[in-house]
Amino acid sequence: MKKILVIHGPNLNLLGDRETNIYGKNTLEDINNMLKEEATSLKVEIIPFQSNHEGEIVQKIQDAKKDGISAILINPAAYTHTSVAIRDAISAIDIPIIEVHLSNIYAREEFRKISLISPVAAGVISGFGCQSYIFGLRAAAEIVKKA
User: Fold this and answer.
1) Are β-strands 123-126 and 69-75 bridged in parallel, bridged antiparallel, or unpaired?
2) Which of 24, 68, 70, 112 could bridge 144 with an S-S bond, Cβ 3.0-4.6 Å?
């Protein structure tokens, strides 16, 4: 079974409590449970991972090939706009990446409209709340099945 790593970036552990007018009322656990359900129907396995620490995310990306990961679904959160290290880690591996965001980053503050990750991702899904993750997982599953 193909494995898809799901990386949740900083502050996503606060979902459900944090700025619910922007990010919704679902918790990170809710999102992971929805992803597990969808993964079963897509016949893929997901490995969820959340960190508030840039270096841990970089290490997880670097270890992906060794860990048998076929694709990565990532919500880099605030690191979307600031992390050259995460961007470079993605560029260094030969694994497809789908970038997802709960909110529409292009309809928000100016600094959020710039993603350092998008240029090295296979695709970007943004603005559909929790469904962004589901759409991203479907895209990742399709990419790995064609590979």
Assistant:
1) unpaired
2) 70
Indicate the pTM of the whole model.
0.95
8 by DSSP, 3-state: which?
A: strand
Nearest-angstrom CA–CA distance, 51 and 92:
20
Burial 72-87 (b: 16+ CB within 10 A, else e): bbbbbbebbbebeebb
pLDDT score of 111 more than 90: no
Run of H or E residues at 86:
helix 84-92
Give the C-alpha separation, 133 to 102, whole Å: 8
Instruction: Let me know if 23 is a catalytic residue.
Output: yes
The type of residue at 135 is F
- 81 in active site: no
Annotated catalytic residue, options 8, 79, 101, 133: 101
